[in-house]
Specification:
The protein has a three-stranded antiparallel β-sheet with strand order 1-2-3. With 70 residues, it is of the alpha+beta class. β1 and β2 form a beta hairpin. It is globular and about 35 Å long. The chain has two helices and three strands, in the order βββαα.
């Protein structure tokens, strides 16, 4: 199964969410830190629900937008 994680700048920090699963969210001072936190939350969710753990595959990134807001 593929999961999407969306990272956005928000109020001086970054927030990463997985739209397919409510509650899978990560926050960080950088986009990478927020992504890492969201991936950890997604991994934990999959383990708790006996789902296969996803592998990371970046399919689209717009770093200019993220960096410009930092």
């Amino acid at each position: 199964m593929h999961y999407e994680i969306v990272v956005r700048a928000e109020a001086g920090q970054f927030r990463a969410i997985c739209p397919q699963i409510a509650g899978v969210v990560g926050y960080g001072v950088s986009a990478g830190a927020a992504l890492d936190a969201a991936l950890a939350a997604l991994h934990s969710y999959c383990l708790q629900h006996n789902l296969p753990t996803p592998q990371l595959e970046v399919t689209r990134a717009n770093l200019k937008t993220l960096v410009g807001r930092a």
